[in-house]
Amino acid sequence: MSGKxxxxxxxxxxxxxxSKGGFDRVLKMIKITGGGDGRxxxxxxxxxxxxxxxxxxxxxxxxxxxxxxTTYALMSTGSHPGVTATLNxxxxxxxxxxxxxxxxxxxxxxxxxxxxxxCVLKRKSDGRILASGGQVKYVDFxxxx
Length: 145
Prior knowledge:
The protein has 145 residues and is an alpha+beta fold. The protein is built from 2 helices and 6 strands; from the N terminus they run H-E-E-H-E-E-E-E. Helix content is 21%, strand content 36%. The radius of gyration is 15 Å and the shape is globular.
């Protein structure tokens, strides 16, 4: 795997995004464990600051994870990170404090203008799907208008 397509590249992109002091810093808790060539795999432990008022993983944080980790997967194809055209998340089950959540994001297709990405979040202990989602990104920034 080349340096711009492998897991080390995905780790670098994730660390860079979390270190810039903007909203993406909320994702510093994610440890990238695999990926490259259109995929990004990671995990994190649900902590108190990740919870909603019901004491489970906050849906907004879940959506942010889907948004960012799918972008890491896209960038590992050599693509521009693009801008989100659509983002969707379906919530299936709750995650509680102390549980480890696995993230698996994939690039389904990266064309000249648009990229299609998906993501699944699972509880590590039993493999139960917590949420699934994805996005469509506009990536055609090198073309003259």
